[in-house]
Amino acid sequence: MINLNAKELIIQSIEHRNILRVPMMYRADPAVNLRLTEYFKLGSIESGWQELIKKLGADNFSDGATLSGFTTYFPKYIGPDFNTTYESNHFFIWGIKPIPVKVGDTIDIVFHKNPPLHDKDELSDIADYGFPRVDWFDFNTFKIVSEAVFQDFNSQKEISARDLKRSEELFLSAYFMNCIFMVSIFIRGINKMLMDLVSNKRYAEKLIANIGEFMIEFCSNYLAAIGDKLDIYGIWDDFATQLDLVISPELWRKYYKPWYKKIVGIAKKYNLFICFHVCGNCSAVIPDLIEIGVDILDPVQVNARNMEICKLKKLYGKNICFHGGLDAQNLIPLGTPSEIKKEVKRVKNLFGSEGGIILGPSHFITPDTPTENILAIYQ
User: Fold this and answer.
1) What is the dihedral of CA 223, 229, 231, 237, to 10 degrees?
2) Closest by alpha carbon to 364, among 19, 94, 29?
3) How many angstroms separate the Cα of 35 from the Cα of each of 22, 44, 108, 345, 368?
4) For the chain, how many structural domains are there in total?
5) How far is CA 42 from CA 3, 87, 129, 241, 262, in A?
6) Does a structural domain hold residue 150?
7) How far is 349 from 98, CA to CA, in rounded Å?
8) d(Cα 364, Cα 329) in Å, to the nearest integer?
9) What is the Cα–Cα distance from 175 to 65, expressed in whole angstroms?
């Protein structure tokens, strides 16, 4: 089992309390998880994940938006059958058609093809659009969702809200239905949506409001059911590239920030830590995320522009906790074990006993990463 002190150590780091050592987290692509369970002879990842992180020397098994690779809960979908590819984030409920695409030996899912409102340019088109309803979800029954395994809808285990208990050992979390930017560009199409923000403002405001209002209602019902059992509420919305934000900080603050603030406000009523996932260079809005109450920034893509960990610590290290911080794009898959160990030591020395970091890969470790490089992170 996980060291019983691991959760408290991580909480101390989130809260910037004096820590005995820098906590380490692990997260990886499902294929990597399977490889490591075979390497350590642990059987299935579902039953052996706690033993896996113990053998690695990590403190936590994280995922892409929270600190809980195997303890994230999502209300059971009971709505209409859209006769489409299932994907865990339920983008299909917005009329967005998921498209499976083969990438190497795996299947990825894309959402940007054939956006349903692409050629619908009038406000009346938004009024007539079939937005999702909260009663499409059962807030008494929850699916246990994980990005750490190859999983389909039918393989997800269920738990009733009344049977979910707080844990002294594990981080329990929620994080669905809050990626407002992503949903808006998938419904409208990225080119049209970006133009709307500057030249069709009433349309943009109306569309985003319809999305945001549903997400507020969903979040309220979601957390009313199990919020008092959880530790973490995660928000993910990838509105940045490696160079900069997809839209200007001013547009982000005008159209999207108010909705994030409302969602964070709901989660804070349950005293939850807020983890915000945004890939790439999000440095321009880190002060805004701090202002609205975000506690943890993920994945800290350190090879993106303006995201070097030393700079981030200097500017924001006293006000937010970094989750990630080790380059998973170049260093971890392509570096040598000695280079990886050197970087781990550098970052640990940088933060020392001050807290403010949960150190680990800046995204899922990919299948092209040698096993010895993974081990080097934690040795």
Assistant:
1) -30
2) 29
3) 26, 10, 20, 26, 11
4) 1
5) 18, 28, 49, 38, 43
6) no
7) 44
8) 9
9) 7
Position 41, amino acid:
K
3-9 average pLDDT score:
80
Pairing relation of β-strands 137-145 and 106-110?
unpaired
The burial of 327, by beta-carbon neighbours within 10 Å (0-12 exposed, 13-18 middle, 19 or more buried), is given as buried
159, part of any domain: no
The residues, ordered by sequence, that sit 6+ positions from 271 with a Cβ below 8 Å of its Cβ are none
The CATH number linked to 314 is 3.20.20.210
Q: What is the pLDDT of residues 303-343, one digit of tens each?
A: 999 999 999 999 999 999 999 999 999 999 999 999 999 99
Q: Is residue 170 part of a domain?
A: yes
How large is the C-alpha radius of gyration of the chain? 20
DSSP character for 170? S
For residue 84, being part of any structural domain is answered with no
Write the pLDDT tens digit of every residue in 223-265: 999 999 999 999 999 999 999 999 999 999 999 999 999 999 9
Structure tokens at 222: 């979601």
C-alpha separations of 84 from 109, 195, 214, 346 in Å: 12, 29, 22, 47
State the residue range of the domain holding 270.
Answer: 6-72+165-182+192-378
Going by the DSSP 8-state scheme, the letter that residue 107 receives in this structure is: E
The pLDDT confidence band at residue 4, using thresholds 50, 70 and 90, is: very low
User: For residue range 31-90, what is the model confidence (pLDDT) as tens digits?
Assistant: 999 999 999 999 899 999 999 999 999 999 999 889 999 999 999 999 999 988 778 889
Distance CA 177, CA 236 (A): 9
* C-beta separation of 358 from 321 below 8 A: yes
**Distances, alpha carbon 301 to alpha carbons 31, 228, 246, 289, 326, in Å:** 22, 31, 16, 16, 8
DSSP letter (8 states) at residue 330: T
